[in-house]
Specification:
Blueprint: H1 2-23, H2 25-30, H3 40-56, H4 60-66, H5 87-100, H6 121-126, H7 131-152, H8 157-183, H9 203-209
Length: 212
């Protein structure tokens, strides 16, 4: 009889725990796709980074380091330089991936991009085991590209203010997402103690320095 009661009790506990986990919105959200494509700010950053990659003629070796080409697990590739599930991070990451898969120009002797490329010393920094070195070196690439696109599109003061606020909002969200990864003991993020947001979000600080 005692064994029978114990079995029923354990079964109930298991069902209760399973239902609780299934109802946890954080777990449900983690199953959803990261939908950045319809967001105007994410689109802006995507095109800013893609244009910068083309304009500077960034080498494939550098791009491969940024997109985690050597990482086996698909969802972990982004984690070498970006916060997984941060929408602005995904927009930036996809710009690198899109550029990496670019076709050659027609009848152009194998050319597929413009510019002279970056100093390959950057490659060593992007492959560093130190997270701060990796992330900041990547940021030095993309932040000027974002600023250049803002300047070239001649946004009004009101538009610049709105964009700055949107970047700041993404920075707060990114910080929360990063904290969740760290609390979950995700090994890719445990040494990101210096880091509050993605380098695309940090463009908000650049806007402030420029007086926008």
């Amino acid at each position: 009889m005692k064994i029978h009661v114990l079995t029923i009790t354990l079964s109930c506990l298991f069902v209760f725990q399973s239902n609780s986990l299934a109802a946890d919105p954080r777990l449900e959200a983690s199953k959803k796709a990261v939908e950045w494509q319809k967001d105007e700010t994410c689109q802006f950053v995507f095109f800013a980074v893609l244009e910068g990659l083309y304009r500077d003629g960034i080498q494939n070796e550098i791009v491969d380091a940024v997109i985690g080409e050597k990482i086996d697990k698909k969802e972990n590739k982004i984690k070498t330089h970006f916060v997984f599930r941060c929408e602005l991070c995904h927009a930036t990451y996809e710009a690198f991936r899109t550029y990496r898969n670019r076709p050659e120009f027609l009848d152009a002797k194998g050319a597929s991009t413009f510019g002279k490329g970056a100093d390959l010393k950057l490659l060593k920094e992007l492959q560093s085991k130190d997270a701060r070195t990796r992330i900041y070196s990547m940021g030095r690439l993309i932040r000027p590209w974002i600023m250049q696109r803002i300047e070239e599109t001649r946004k009004t003061p009101a538009e610049k203010t709105a964009m700055k606020e949107k970047f700041a909002s993404y920075a707060r969200e990114g910080k929360d997402i990063l904290r969740a990864h760290q609390q979950a003991k995700d090994g890719f993020y445990l040494d990101w103690r210096f880091y509050g947001s993605c380098q695309a979000c940090e463009a908000a600080k650049d806007l402030g320095k420029k007086g926008f």
